């Protein structure tokens, strides 16, 4: 499990936002501001203050408010800064897909501006997202690009973040000694003892790196240094990472009681930082922003149509003949505009539906990981604790109950996202075929070329593909009485074609289209959400062939 404190998120905190200014003072200053540009900057500063205190929902409200004003002004530097702040907040609250979108938007704008400092910050944000998603090659690439930009502008505060983040990445890929050197190098760029967030992040990362190397004494000394800052720090996400690392230290030392107690503290602080309610509030902020933006576009289009209507009416007064001609021209034009407007509204609705579906997929993946990483580990520690006590009938009964609970947690986690997908979609499909062959009279064969097995997919798309194939195969076994199922995948230009064929009794295609079963609806919905197409060829007594075409964009 990766720890967020190992990486520096908003390197903008290296700059003092407003010496001796409080949130209250900034709020009063905002109320007196006279221009959109001044208001946007103050809202950004207030957002960063709340970010530093760990109040991510309030911080995001101010960041979105700053972004809206910057977009009205068409002020690209302010837009880029706001997008980067929003990306950092979504990253901190584990909304990684949305964080990635805003970080890339910030990079695009800063590249056009040739803003080295802005590029360094936005590259760092994107690298942080890939770090937490365990895409180590990508995170290493963007951390290095961030450092290049910081060296250009001699950004000492940013260089601290850059070397620490690079060290965290090297630690994750097993280069522990090199990681420690980079993290220790980053300490040179901490200017003051009061830079609490920087000291906490560096000490925690050094502690983890030494734990990995088996240097328990060095690891504990860095944890003790970290505690001097943690005990009075407002941001609870740092306490969450501290107690998780301390729990790992005691586990490696063999002290299960201390490991368990510190893991409970970690779980307590984690619940206060990342919870469903906060994630819903943050997602709603993004949806509200996107909806308002789309509504403004629609209002503008409607206004333009009304303006053109007025012009046509005025022109019609000049001549009855011209009125007739213009009337037909206008009716034809209006019809096209209405169709265009309806098409745009439908497209926006599709995008919103797709975003909600992806959010649900990501939430399933997050919950499954939390069940495995947090609840699963806590239950394992309880079991270890019980096994170290004197055994009697009562402890044996409790151990049995803990074992059943662990099994139930695994079943729930597997229903949310199958464990097989941890190794990728293609091994998961092979595992599905093995299960079919072992548990029924139906035999299932796979034909997947090696070149296709090299293709990588996003986690939510892997889950969708697996559920589609699983649902189709289950239907073929239950309803088609198939004794043989053949699944093949081929590549055609920029598309992947998944072909599933059986030798069952077949079905009438009209019956499929009229089916009220939730299975077919789920299949069609998942294919549609991946911008794919599904084609069914089936006749009674002649078997069924289902062809699914998906764009090859991961």
Gist?
This protein has 21 helices and five strands.
Parts with pLDDT < 50 across at least 5 consecutive residues? 11-20
* CA radius of gyration: 28 Å
Class by helix and strand content?
A: alpha+beta
**Strand count:** 5
How far is the N terminus from the C terminus?
24 Å
**What proportion strand?**
5-15%
Succession of helices and strands: HHHHHHHHHHHHHHHHHEHHEEHHEE
Shape: flat
What integer is the average pLDDT?
80
Q: Which bin fits the share of residues in helices?
A: over 70%
Quick one: biggest sheet? 5 strands, mixed
Count of helical stretches: 21
Strand order of the largest sheet: 1-2-3-5-4
Descriptive key words:
5-stranded mixed beta sheet; 554 residues; 5 strands; flat; 73% helix; alpha+beta; 21 helices; single chain
Give structural notes.
With 554 residues, the chain is of the alpha+beta class. The protein has 21 helices and five strands. It has helices spanning 23-32, 36-52, 56-73, 76-92, 96-113, 116-132, 136-153, 156-172, 176-186, 196-212, 216-230, 236-253, 256-273, 276-318, 320-387, 393-416, 425-439, 450-453, 459-478, 509-513, 518-529; strands at 443-447, 484-492, 495-502, 533-538, 544-551. It has a five-stranded mixed beta sheet with strand order 1-2-3-5-4, covered by helices on one side. Helix 5 (96-113) packs antiparallel against helix 6 (116-132), helix 11 packs antiparallel against helix 12 and helix 15 (320-387) runs antiparallel to helix 16 (393-416). Mean pLDDT is 80; it is low at 11-20.
């Amino acid at each position: 499990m990766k720890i967020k404190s190992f990486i520096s998120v908003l390197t903008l905190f290296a700059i003092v936002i407003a010496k001796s200014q409080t949130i209250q003072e900034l709020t009063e200053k905002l109320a007196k501001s006279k221009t959109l540009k001044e208001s946007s900057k103050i809202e950004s500063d207030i957002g960063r203050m709340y970010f530093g205190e760990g109040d991510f929902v309030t911080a995001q409200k101010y960041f979105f408010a700053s972004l809206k004003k910057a977009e009205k002004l068409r002020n690209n530097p302010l837009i880029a800064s706001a997008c980067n702040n929003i990306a950092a907040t979504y990253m901190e609250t584990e909304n990684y897909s949305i964080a990635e979108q805003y970080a890339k938007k910030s990079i695009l704008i800063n590249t056009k501006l040739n803003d080295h400092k802005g590029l360094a910050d936005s590259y760092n944000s994107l690298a942080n997202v890939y770090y937490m998603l365990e895409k180590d090659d990508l995170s290493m690439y963007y951390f290095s690009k961030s450092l290049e930009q910081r060296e250009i502008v001699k950004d000492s505060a940013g260089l601290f973040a850059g070397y620490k983040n690079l060290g965290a990445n090297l630690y994750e890929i097993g280069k522990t000694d090199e990681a420690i050197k980079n993290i220790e190098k980053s300490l040179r760029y901490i200017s003051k003892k009061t830079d609490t967030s920087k000291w906490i992040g560096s000490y925690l990362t050094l502690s983890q790196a030494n734990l990995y190397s088996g240097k328990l004494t060095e690891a504990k000394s860095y944890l003790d240094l970290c505690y001097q800052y943690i005990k009075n720090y407002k941001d609870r996400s740092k306490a969450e990472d501290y107690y998780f690392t301390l729990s790992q230290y005691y586990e490696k030392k063999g002290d299960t009681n201390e490991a368990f107690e510190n893991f409970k503290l970690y779980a307590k602080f984690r619940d206060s930082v990342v919870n469903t309610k906060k994630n819903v509030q943050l997602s709603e902020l993004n949806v509200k922003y996107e909806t308002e933006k789309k509504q403004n576009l629609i209002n503008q289009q409607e206004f333009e149509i009304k303006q053109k209507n007025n012009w046509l009416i005025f022109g019609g007064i000049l001549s009855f003949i011209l009125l007739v001609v213009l009337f037909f021209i206008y009716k034809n034009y209006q019809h096209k505009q209405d169709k265009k407007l309806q098409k745009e509204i439908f497209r926006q609705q599709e995008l919103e539906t797709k975003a909600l579906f992806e959010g649900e997929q990501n939430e399933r993946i997050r919950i499954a990981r939390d069940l495995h990483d947090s609840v699963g580990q806590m239950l394992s520690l309880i079991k270890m604790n019980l096994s170290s006590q004197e055994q009697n009938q009562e402890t044996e009964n409790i151990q049995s109950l803990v074992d059943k609970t662990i099994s139930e947690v695994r079943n729930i986690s597997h229903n949310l996202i199958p464990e097989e997908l941890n190794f990728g979609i293609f091994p998961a499909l092979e595992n599905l075929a093995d299960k079919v062959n072992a548990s029924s009279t139906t035999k299932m064969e796979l034909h997947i070329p090696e070149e296709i097995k090299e293709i990588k997919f996003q986690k939510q798309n892997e889950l969708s593909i697996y559920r589609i194939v699983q649902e189709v195969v289950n239907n073929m076994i239950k309803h088609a009485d198939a004794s043989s199922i053949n699944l093949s995948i081929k590549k055609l230009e920029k598309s992947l074609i998944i072909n599933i064929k059986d030798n069952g009794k077949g079905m009438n295609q009209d019956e499929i289209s009229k089916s009220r079963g939730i299975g077919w609806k789920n299949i069609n919905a998942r294919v549609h959400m991946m911008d794919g197409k599904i084609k069914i060829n089936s006749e009674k007594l002649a078997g069924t062939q289902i062809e699914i075409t998906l764009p090859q964009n991961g």
